[in-house]
Amino acid sequence: MPGEIISIEIKFKNYLSTASNLTITLESRNPDAVVRNGIFSAGSIAASDSFSNSPKFTVSLENMLPLNTQLNFLIKYSDGDYSDYQAITTFANPSFAAHSGNDISLTITGKGTLGFNDYPSNMQGTGFTYLNSSNLLFEGALMIASSAAKVLDAARGSGEASGQNEDFDPVQPFRIVSENNDLVHGTAEFNDNGAGAGKLGIDVVLNSYTFTDDSSRNYIILKYSIINNSADIISNLYPGLYFDWDIAGGADDLTAYDSGENFGYVYNGSNQNFPWVGTGIISRTGYGFWGINNSGGDGGFSIYDGFSDAEKFQSLASGIGKLQAGPGDVSFVVSTGPLNIGPSDTINAAFAVAAGSNLNELRTAISNARIKYRNFVNDTTGGEIPDKFVLYQNYPNPFNPNTTIRYNLPVQSNVFLKVYDVLGNELRTLVNQLQPAGDYRIEFKSEGLASGIYFYRIEAGSFSEIRKMVILK
Ligand SMILES: [Ca+2]
Ligand SMILES: [Ca+2]
After folding, report:
1. Which of 199, 210, 308, 401 could form a disulfide with 192 if both were Cys (CB 3.0 to 4.6 A apart)?
2. ∠3-63-74 over CA atoms, to 5°?
3. Are strands 288-293 and 320-322 parallel, antiparallel or unpaired?
4. Neighbour-count burial of 375, counting CB atoms closer than 10 A to its CB (0-12 exposed, 13-18 middle, 19+ buried)
5. What span, in angstroms and rounded, lies between the C-alpha atoms of 141 and 36?
6. Helix (H, G, I), strand (E, B) or coil at 261
């Protein structure tokens, strides 16, 4: 947003000998990002010392930037005698973020993909990492199907070397919404408008959770709430996650199904000391798994020649369909179903994505994730009642002509939601009524208002919050 200030704190470590009088300078390589405070005098730093810049570097954004604009910076080091530099990259106005709450880090997007936002370049995002591993995930995507003719997905398409399907349109980009010592919680929302005439009329709210207690350090929970916004019953529905894991290059992986704990996993066939990764459905007991050798030729199908809708539906809807694949470049689909959703009804499909150093650690993680889901996620956040007041950033933003303002009420409240100009003049009243606890979305139209910065403010009981939005005509 124009004028928005970004604060940057960087953790440094001196791998060289003691430096005296060290100065670190941040330089922007992009005219849209102007460094306001970019010089840090670190002084004398002993070998192996770790430190952070204080005060933080600050950068202001000069223009309205499209979603996912790449910003490049140079960090320059100098102690008078020795100098060096390092390039770093970040993204302005991102629709994706890494959920990093414990030993797992997974990038989540607002369009149904996992790992990266720009498959197959895979520059936007950091994939999936465990402890200090390199990225282990080439592609991750939600797939939801009710027949081979009705497949909604964000996975690679049916053509050879085709990009990902874009059946899911972002409604809310992925954001971390709360973070404390025990728990990190993120959320995103999308609908199936991208499927055009092939859509089912669903809205999907993704909630991600990581926990820091000892038995929860190596998994992340992904809970997909699928809302039927159509006037018809949706039946025979199979939601699933497709993952193309690549452990240490991915050329020599194996995938299999653990029928004791009911989850799929991948490990490196030539060096089992690399991390093992697994995914299981944790919200119900209708288990589906399909192991894929990406090059085919093992009784299954190939995805190097494209991942067709028929293949997607087969992999989602065959139960425990294909128990193993590899060695080679492998993928898998973990799914559940069949599900029926009435009009306006919601069903949840929750998955745990885990990592460990062997199969037993994965079994323990998936088992613990099921207990956590039952005792925590489902009870406190699975219902329709939010656990606190939240006023979300409107989306899209900047916008013209429509944007959506979302807010949560944990209790019945007298709600005022109003729009103001920069001088504080009240322009519109969007809500003025007593509302029950719930999750609300209000559409706001820019009709009759000029391009520029505006504010929207909610008052609900003793809660109030104000946020900025931009109309760009
Ligand atoms: Ca194929
Ligand atoms: Ca692979």
Report:
1. 199
2. 85
3. parallel
4. exposed
5. 39
6. coil
The token pair that represents 201 in the structure block:
């009329």
Ligand 2 center–CA 278 separation, angstroms: 13
Q: Which amino acid is at 195?
A: A
pLDDT tens digits, one per residue of 259-316: 999 999 999 999 999 999 999 999 988 999 999 999 999 999 999 999 999 999 999 9
**CA triplet 294, 299, 300: central angle to 5 degrees?**
40
Which ligand is in closest contact with the Cα of 293? 2
What contacts 24+ positions apart, CB below 8 Å, involve 156-161?
156/119, 156/120, 156/303, 156/306, 156/307, 157/306, 157/307, 158/306, 158/307, 158/308, 158/309, 159/306, 160/304, 160/305, 160/306
Average pLDDT, whole number, for the chain?
92
* CA–CA separation, 355 and 364 (whole Å): 10
Q: What is the 8-class DSSP label of residue 370? A: H
Strand partners, 420: 426, 455
User: What DSSP letter does each residue of 181-212 carry, written as one string?
Assistant: SSEEEEEEEEESGGGGGG---EEEEEEEEEE-
Residue listed under structure tokens 């590899």? 326
For the chain, domains (ranges, CATH) are 5-92 (2.60.40.10), 96-381 (2.70.98.10), 390-471 (2.60.40.1930)
Instruction: Give CA–CA dist 408/391, Å, rounded.
Output: 7
Which is nearest to 222 in space by CA: 101, 126, 309?
101
* Residue 462, token pair as written in the block: 């003793």
Across the beta sheet with 5-8, the strand order is 5-8, 57-61, 33-37
Max distance between CA atoms of the chain, in angstroms, equals: 73
- Residue 278 in contact with residue 366, Cβ under 8 Å? yes
Distance 302 CA to ligand 1 centre (A): 5
Q: Which ligand is nearest to the CA of 266?
A: 2
Cα-to-centroid distance, 242 and ligand 2 (Å): 11
**Quick check: 181 pLDDT over 90?**
no
Instruction: Give the number of other Cβ atoms within 10 Å of residue 373's Cβ.
Output: 21
- pTM summary value: 0.76
